[in-house]
């Protein structure tokens, strides 16, 4: 138990303190020394922090002192308590620099604790803070926190963008640059890219070595080891594992130990060394069954199932298979929670931006009204003329406003290109429909689909053909669905269909009809033969409840499965 807690503390501390927070305007150099040494000797750092004379510190340094105390509390083995303390610091401090530094820690720590709703809230706040940050070091530290968060949230497109920004703004020997290299290699392993990454790996390893970061070198090597195993290159992977072994043992961080041994179990099984594969897998399975180690546990269980089957120990194989099913189910639950939290965060952000835009318009209108109120009319005749003109203008404006209102209402509800509902109206309508269906104890089904390789169609045929294809797709859908069905364009080539009084089985049938209807779509003025196909994902309320965000997230996972299995097909979401 002690090793698990201390390993977590070391991992968190390393991620939050790659370099001294030297740009903070601290009058007492002791605070900078504490942050500089706390990863290597946290006990000494804590002693120095407790021995400081708080009365001699400036107000900003006192806030910095409070931040360091909260950060060091992670070594006590309870990340939840450390997170709670840092939340208090973020709420109370006045210093912008200390607040932003705390925000970096909270964003990254939220992802380790699975606090996705709070994490996305902190991530959005950190992105706004970085937009105005002039200090390069603070900006890189902020990007570091965001990168860690979005990697753990499995938002790999955003993580790639952040890694590229870090690469652009940091020298080759910077630990931040090393983190970006590790992230890109880790994403490549998770996405199972087929091309060789040897050249990039060697460059990344040289950069990490120059930064002096043994931990990140090991993370980089393990990501590349995973990639080599997935590419079925066991000999090359074996040579790399021999190099890694001593470094991983010396660092002694449980997270890294488990990931490395899970990779070793897969590697030894590929090489035919069953005993060593079993030893490495058993090391992983002997640790506490915690959600943060799920992927390593799944990798180890997969190996143990294969070994038990090969040895015809079917009872043992069944036991491992049941544990594997449970772990995979937990992982799927975590993925749904992440997706729902991400979509909810984007929705909340859009609402906030709309509220700010509306408030700006109201303020401008108030300024104009105040200006008109302060003007004095000196000539009675002119005043009468102005009043008459204003009355006429009001009549005209009333007539004009009614027309504009009708036009704006249509624009607020419909997508201008396809005539389908837009995303915001769809979400709003769904939030009204679903409670009614819940009271009626009636199922609702949500279908999510997008056009396969639509970007390629735009690139080869032109955007005009692409626009015609989107309009024809919606027309084909309306030929299939009922009148009370909501059809919306969620963005780009992605569409959604909400069907009341419909379960996932019937919804999948409707989706199949839609798929065939869209296959028959023909667009004029194409440069060559145009083949159209669509991938579908279907979910319903009986599995994820009467919440539109859960329905969207579940349907999106089923859609992802359709794409992963070759596209042009329908997949249903189901909880195993």
Structure description:
This protein has 24 helices and six strands. It has 576 residues and is mainly α. A hairpin with a 2-residue loop joins strand 3 and strand 4. It is globular and about 90 Å long. The relative contact order is 0.05.
List the helices and strands and how they pair.
Elements: H1 2-16, H2 29-37, H3 42-51, H4 59-72, H5 79-92, H6 96-113, H7 116-131, H8 136-152, H9 156-169, H10 175-190, H11 198-211, H12 214-230, H13 234-251, H14 254-271, H15 274-285, H16 294-310, H17 314-374, H18 380-413, E1 421-422, H19 423-439, E2 444-451, H20 454-461, H21 463-480, E3 486-491, E4 494-500, H22 504-519, E5 534-540, H23 541-544, H24 548-564, E6 570-572
Parallel strand pairs: 1-3, 5-6
Antiparallel strand pairs: 2-4, 2-5, 3-4
Helix pairs in contact: 2-3, 3-4, 4-5, 5-6, 6-7, 6-8, 7-8, 7-17, 8-9, 8-10, 9-10, 10-11, 10-12, 11-12, 12-13, 12-14, 13-14, 14-15, 14-16, 15-16, 16-17, 17-24, 20-21, 21-22
Number of strands: 6
Report Rg.
29 Å
Helix content: over 70%
**Uncertain segments:** 1-27
The biggest sheet amounts to:
6 strands, mixed
Question: How do the helices and strands follow one another from N- to C-terminus?
Answer: HHHHHHHHHHHHHHHHHHEHEHHEEHEHHE
Tally of contiguous helical segments: 24
What does the average pLDDT come to? 81
Spatial order of the strands forming the largest sheet: 1-3-4-2-5-6
Sheet-strand content, in percent, reads 5-15%
The oligomeric state is single chain
Shape from CA axes? globular
